[in-house]
Amino acid sequence: MPPHDTKEVKVGVLGATGTVGQRFILLLSQHPYFVIHALGASSRSAGKRYSQAVTWKQTSPVPAAVRNLVVNECKPEFFKDCGVVFSGLDSDVAGDIESAFRIAELIVFSNAKNYRRDPHVPLIVPLVNSSHFAMVPQQRALHSPPLKNGFILTNANCSTTGVVVPLAALEKAFGPLESCMITTMQAISGAGYPGIPSLDIMDNVVPYISGEEEKIEWETLKILGGIADDGDNGLKAFDMHGKHPLRISASCNRVPVIEGHTECVSVRFARRPPPSPQQVREALAAYTSDAYALGCPSAPRHTIFVHEEADRPQPRLDRDYQMGAGVSVGRVRQCRVLDIKFVVLANNVAIGAATSSILNAELAVLKGYIPSHST
Ligand SMILES: NC(=O)c1ccc[n+]([C@@H]2O[C@H](COP(=O)([O-])OP(=O)(O)OC[C@H]3O[C@@H](n4cnc5c(N)ncnc54)[C@H](OP(=O)(O)O)[C@@H]3O)[C@@H](O)[C@H]2O)c1
């Protein structure tokens, strides 16, 4: 990985007091060039020092650099000096707030679902589809009024993120997939804080997470698909994997795990005969991301760690590997219905949320999308 010589970039965090926001604070407080400059949350928190506003749920203390920062309301005027704004906002409010920040020529990296389906907003899992940054100029140009710097870029739903990484590795090695079945066992931190009541989740599995199955089935196509000409108008569009239709069926469950989403995945390849389990293991282990190759400091060295043990990955043992920035896969074996099945584990608050946003912002710096006056 090449060394970076990037100057400091001031950053803001919206939703800084929430589950994802706290992970942003932890990661950014150790970042080599992003420097926390402004924090935002609801009017309940605004005006308080961060340490008073937050219900801190991390295993290390509130970083000294932010403890006394005063939390603001999520208004662009408080973030105007920020080269990058990270958003861990509740989706009930993220739409309007992120839009106001974009109009104010700010660059927003969002975890919320609101703009993931926007035809001009890239939905980027940084270990998979950094090429979708190519849609940023079109988003700026088609905005009314056109923008010089501002744009919104989102990362994916936390379960989508875990599964698209091995799927991308398999398509890169063996060509298009035809179908995919996914069953998730999702941690309770995925629902934010305080989230699901303890009496509903202890000693229990809840076989429903509102909207989650549709997100996995739709977002995966946008992420794994390419960018194509949108008719003869000179515009580009996400092709939604349209050249090789991919059928995906997801079933989502909430389980009494605090952090780390586990997913059981079966896939069918277009190519016949399909690869063997050993070929699949080798392809997964060999997969490297653009984020790592380009030198993003937060990129995991091993994009996918392939376990040989029969009983791994497990959330408690594997969620913090590489600070939760990579994805763990195990139990790669033949599927009697489709071709190959395996188990994926991804840390929902790290690569499933804050780490993805930070990696996307690092890619934006490397690709020249962060204006130089903010450094
Ligand atoms: N948790 C995950 O694993 C995960 C993974 C991927 C994506 N996401 C997405 O990331 C976002 C945040 O999730 P979370 O789990 O961190 O939620 P959370 O713990 O409920 O935190 C929500 C944050 O939004 C702020 N907020 C709420 N209402 C607001 C308002 N009216 N104006 C300004 N700020 C407001 C809260 O501030 P106060 O403290 O002041 O109320 C808090 O900082 C959601 O869109 C979620 O879908 C979450």
From TrEMBL:
<keyword id="KW-0560">Oxidoreductase</keyword>
<keyword id="KW-0028">Amino-acid biosynthesis</keyword>
<keyword id="KW-0521">NADP</keyword>
<protein>
    <recommendedName>
        <fullName>Aspartate-semialdehyde dehydrogenase</fullName>
        <ecNumber>1.2.1.11</ecNumber>
    </recommendedName>
</protein>
<keyword id="KW-0486">Methionine biosynthesis</keyword>
<dbReference type="InterPro" id="IPR012280">
    <property type="entry name" value="Semialdhyde_DH_dimer_dom"/>
</dbReference>
<feature type="active site" description="Acyl-thioester intermediate">
    <location>
        <position position="158"/>
    </location>
</feature>
<comment type="pathway">
    <text>Amino-acid biosynthesis; L-methionine biosynthesis via de novo pathway; L-homoserine from L-aspartate: step 2/3.</text>
</comment>
<comment type="similarity">
    <text>Belongs to the aspartate-semialdehyde dehydrogenase family.</text>
</comment>
<dbReference type="Pfam" id="PF01118">
    <property type="entry name" value="Semialdhyde_dh"/>
</dbReference>
<dbReference type="InterPro" id="IPR000534">
    <property type="entry name" value="Semialdehyde_DH_NAD-bd"/>
</dbReference>
<dbReference type="InterPro" id="IPR051823">
    <property type="entry name" value="ASADH-related"/>
</dbReference>
<dbReference type="GO" id="GO:0009088">
    <property type="term" value="P:threonine biosynthetic process"/>
</dbReference>
<comment type="pathway">
    <text>Amino-acid biosynthesis; L-threonine biosynthesis; L-threonine from L-aspartate: step 2/5.</text>
</comment>
<dbReference type="GO" id="GO:0050661">
    <property type="term" value="F:NADP binding"/>
</dbReference>
<dbReference type="InterPro" id="IPR036291">
    <property type="entry name" value="NAD(P)-bd_dom_sf"/>
</dbReference>
<dbReference type="InterPro" id="IPR005676">
    <property type="entry name" value="Asp_semi-ald_DH_pep-lack"/>
</dbReference>
<dbReference type="Pfam" id="PF02774">
    <property type="entry name" value="Semialdhyde_dhC"/>
</dbReference>
<dbReference type="GO" id="GO:0046983">
    <property type="term" value="F:protein dimerization activity"/>
</dbReference>
<dbReference type="InterPro" id="IPR000319">
    <property type="entry name" value="Asp-semialdehyde_DH_CS"/>
</dbReference>
<dbReference type="GO" id="GO:0051287">
    <property type="term" value="F:NAD binding"/>
</dbReference>
<dbReference type="GO" id="GO:0004073">
    <property type="term" value="F:aspartate-semialdehyde dehydrogenase activity"/>
</dbReference>
<feature type="active site" description="Proton acceptor">
    <location>
        <position position="261"/>
    </location>
</feature>
<comment type="function">
    <text>Catalyzes the NADPH-dependent formation of L-aspartate 4-semialdehyde (L-ASA) by the reductive dephosphorylation of 4-phospho-L-aspartate. Mediates the second step in the biosynthesis of amino acids that derive from aspartate (the aspartate family of amino acids), including methioinine and threonine, the latter of which is a precursor to isoleucine.</text>
</comment>
<keyword id="KW-0791">Threonine biosynthesis</keyword>
<feature type="domain" description="Semialdehyde dehydrogenase NAD-binding">
    <location>
        <begin position="10"/>
        <end position="136"/>
    </location>
</feature>
<dbReference type="GO" id="GO:0009086">
    <property type="term" value="P:methionine biosynthetic process"/>
</dbReference>
